[in-house]
Amino acid sequence: MICALGAAVCFGTASVLQAVATRTAEPGTGSGVDPALLLRALRQWRYGAGLALDGLGFALQIVALRSLPIYAVGAALAASLAVTAVVAARLLAVRLSGAEWGAVAVVCGGLALLGLASGPEGHRAGPAALGWVMLAVAGAVLLAGAAAGRLPDRPRALVLGLGSGFGFGVVEVSVRLIDGPDPANPALYALLLGGGAAFLLLTSALQRGSVTTATAGMVLGETIGPALVGVVWLGDRTRDGLEWLAVAGFAVAVAGALALARFGEPPTAGEAAGDTPGKTAGGAP
């Protein structure tokens, strides 16, 4: 659990650093799948620092996934949303409103309920086709991102963030399906494709959308789906009699993310550069 919480700090900080970097890069095609945007962002030192934090967070996450149920790890990673909000308030020179802080707390609280309902880690290998399913989901994330990238900025950040979360969710499940470097295991390729797709979508989401909204979508995507896979196919279980708590946590987390998308606004170019401190994320003084 300490490793999972450490990963949340790394991921939450990395999201803000990457948001600052992508907003100084040229816009590109506007698609949610824009490799050229990723290459331009890589020229920014902040994006490189964010990638280094992502790498450290991923290593910590692997340790946690080998010891805890998937959705317990996901609930701990929900803390990255709060980390993102705090760091964004500093580096993006914006101040979150009380409604936005409330939405952050609701998302984290809902996912924490999922964590409280978690039981022991499962040890089933899952059906043989599960690796292929994960590979198909990773491909679908790329296609969905290409379409979602043309939405207006506010829903765009949430949808692309959600898509990136599904990509990272593929990575989480694939980690459980990989026992060693087996080239014949489709889960290995699902891990690579899912991680790459997730980075492309998240980079696009952070460029023009609210960083807290994008992160909220990402947290939901990488928590709910993998949790269900762990319960249905990998043997993860809730604690006896706490199924209702898991359902309640899901509903609360979804409501909080939708509220954050409702209140969250992308900062202006001046705010991203730190020229107009003292405004809320919605633009009000």
UniProtKB/TrEMBL annotation:
Signal peptide interval: 1-19
Keywords: Membrane, Signal, Transmembrane, Transmembrane helix
Keyword Signal in annotation: yes
TM annotation in the entry: 45-63, 70-93, 99-117, 129-151, 157-175, 187-206, 212-235, 242-261
Protein's name according to its UniProt entry: Integral membrane protein
Source organism of the structure: Streptomyces paludis
